[in-house]
Amino acid sequence: MAGGTAWYAAGIAPEVTSIDATWRTTRLVDADGDGLPDGFPGALSTQGLPNVEQRTYDWFAPGMLRAGFDRGAHQIDFTLIGHASHATRYLANATLSAAGIDRDDYVVDGIATWRGKWTNTRAKLQLAWHRSDRGSVRARRRCRAPAAVTLGVRPTTLAEDPQLAELCNDGTFPGSTSARCRSGTSRAAGRAC
Known about the structure:
Layout: E1 5-12, E2 15-28, E3 46-48, E4 52-71, E5 74-90, H1 96-99, E6 100-117, E7 122-138, H2 162-168, E8 181-186
Antiparallel strand pairs: 1-4, 2-3, 2-4, 2-8, 4-5, 5-6, 6-7
């Protein structure tokens, strides 16, 4: 081509993984109605609430594109390399609508290089560009329910999970369900809004 040699190389190696998640919630039992959890001050009695299962998909896609042209003493090459990814992580101390956090990452680098090679002289000029972007949002961003990270205290009304709020509210502490419920996750969580 025009007395020179053109070349290129390209590649992509995407991968997708799935994660099965289970949201587990228990509540303290006060069968005798004395305002103290049964078993207090020793081992407290708890009652499990129905588990919620969910599957999420994460992906990662690295890619590379190189092209160049060699002619006589001159070599020019261009490189574009980067990756895009999506992953969901879960918080154990959150209401269902706030438990999942989606993270998207994008990284790209562009490099252009010219090389000159003569009998007694070598020259090189290189330009490089880098861009990265990372964003995290609520996994249920389309959900209209309020998101709340909690530390064992939940309001008596939860728009995204009224069944949980009703089961946990025993009236012991007005405005809070902390007396009866604790939430946690086993590698993930969440009910759809």
